[in-house]
Specification:
two-stranded antiparallel ribbon; 2 domains; alpha/beta; Helicase, Ruva Protein, domain 3; Rossmann fold; single chain
C-alpha cells in the first residue's frame, strides 16, 4: 500500500512539473505564481489575481487550459453584464413550444473572469455561486460544470473608478490570491524573443488530459495529514483573529483552514510526497490567508500588508513537536 501511494506521488510530481514547465514556455520568470495557479487546479479551488493590465493574466489561463487539453472561456466583466451572460439561461423554442437551456461561459474547465470587480454585485454573486456549488440551475434543470473547474478572476488594484469591491465573504471563496507582477529584464527579453518567434499559448501541446487531471484531484485528497499538522493549521488560523492579532479586525475563517490544508496537500504531492509537512503549510500560508484578513483602519493607514502579518504569525507559532525534535 505504501509503495502504491509512493508511486502515485511520483506520478503526480511528474505531471505537475511537466505542466508547470509547459506553461513557463509562455509565462516567463514566474514559476512560483504559475505553481500557485496549478495548485488551485488540483485543489479544486479558484485564484484571484490582483494585477495591472498587460502582465499575462489571460495568457496564463490560456496556457493552463492548453496544457491540460481543457476548454477555456473568458468573461469581460462590465457594469451592464447580467447574471445570465455568465451562467446561461433559457430561450423559447417556437418549434417545440418549450423553453430550452443555453449554457453560459462558466461551462468550461478554465474560466477567466476578467476585472470581476467591474460587474454589479448581483452578477458577481452569480459567478461566485457557481464557484462554490460547481453547478448552475437553469429553469428546472441543475447542470454541473466540467471537472476540473477553476476560475481565475482578475482585478486591477490601481484603477477603482466604476468598480464594485468584492465583499469579504466573497473574497473568502477564493482559494489563493497572488500577483504576477512585472517580469524582470531578463524575463522580458525572453518574452520578446518568444513573441518575435510567434510562440504563444495557442502553440502549446497538451501535457495531460482533463480526465487524468480529475483522477489526480481525487488522489491528492488522500495525501496524509498528521494530527500535529492539523493542530499547527488550527493554531495558525486562530492566531489571525482578534484579540491575538493586533491590527486585524477580522481573521481567517474555518474555510481558510480547509484551503490551507488542501493547498498544502497539492504542494506536498508536487514534490513527490504522500504526506504534508510544516514547510508545505508555510509555502502557501500568505497566498491562502492574506486576502482573508481584514485590517483595522489604523493598520490600513500605516500601510500594513496582510501578507507580512501572516509571515509574522508563522514566526510566532510553535512548530509541531515532530519537527522540533528532528
Amino acid at each position: 500500500m505504501a509503495e502504491e501511494s509512493d508511486r502515485a506521488a511520483r506520478s503526480f510530481q511528474k505531471i505537475f512539473n511537466d505542466v508547470l514547465g509547459n506553461v513557463e514556455r509562455v509565462i516567463r520568470g514566474k514559476q512560483d505564481q504559475v505553481a500557485l495557479a496549478l495548485t488551485c487546479v488540483f485543489a479544486e479551488g479558484h485564484l484571484l489575481l490582483e494585477d495591472v493590465p498587460g502582465t499575462g493574466k489571460t495568457t496564463l489561463a490560456k496556457s493552463i487550459a492548453a496544457s491540460i487539453e481543457g476548454a477555456m472561456s473568458r468573461v469581460q466583466f462590465t457594469p451592464d453584464l447580467l447574471p445570465s451572460d455568465v451562467t446561461g439561461g433559457q430561450i423559447y423554442n417556437q418549434g417545440t413550444g418549450s423553453f430550452e437551456p443555453y449554457l453560459g461561459p462558466v461551462f468550461a474547465n478554465v474560466v477567466l473572469a476578467d476585472e470581476i470587480n467591474r460587474a454589479s454585485p448581483k452578477t458577481q454573486s452569480a459567478m461566485l455561486e457557481v464557484m462554490e456549488e460547481r453547478q448552475v440551475t437553469l429553469g428546472n434543470e441543475t447542470l454541473a460544470v466540467p471537472r476540473p473547474f477553476v476560475v481565475i478572476a482578475t482585478q486591477n488594484p490601481v484603477e477603482q473608478e466604476g468598480t464594485y469591491r468584492l465583499p469579504e465573504a466573497q473574497l473568502d471563496r477564493f482559494l489563493l490570491r497572488t500577483s504576477l507582477g512585472y517580469p524582470s529584464d531578463e524575463a522580458t527579453i525572453e518574452v520578446l524573443k518568444g513573441n518575435a518567434a510567434g510562440t504563444s499559448a495557442a502553440d502549446l501541446h497538451p501535457i495531460t488530459s482533463v480526465e487524468q487531471v480529475a483522477k489526480m484531484i481525487g488522489w491528492v485528497r488522500t495525501v496524509h495529514v498528521d494530527e500535529s499538522i492539523y493542530a499547527y493549521i488550527a493554531k495558525l488560523v486562530s492566531s489571525t483573529r482578534p484579540p491575538h492579532a493586533p491590527g486585524v479586525r477580522l481573521g481567517a475563517s474555518p474555510r481558510g483552514a480547509i484551503a490551507l490544508m488542501r493547498s498544502a496537500q497539492v504542494i506536498a504531492a508536487a514534490q513527490g510526497r504522500d504526506f504534508v509537512d510544516v514547510q508545505d503549510i508555510k509555502r502557501v500560508a500568505a497566498p491562502v490567508l492574506g486576502h482573508r484578513l481584514i485590517l483595522t483602519p489604523e493598520a490600513e493607514l500605516r500601510g500594513v500588508r496582510t501578507e507580512d502579518l501572516v509571515e509574522q504569525f508563522l514566526a510566532d507559532i510553535e512548530l509541531p513537536e515532530m519537527v522540533r525534535s528532528s
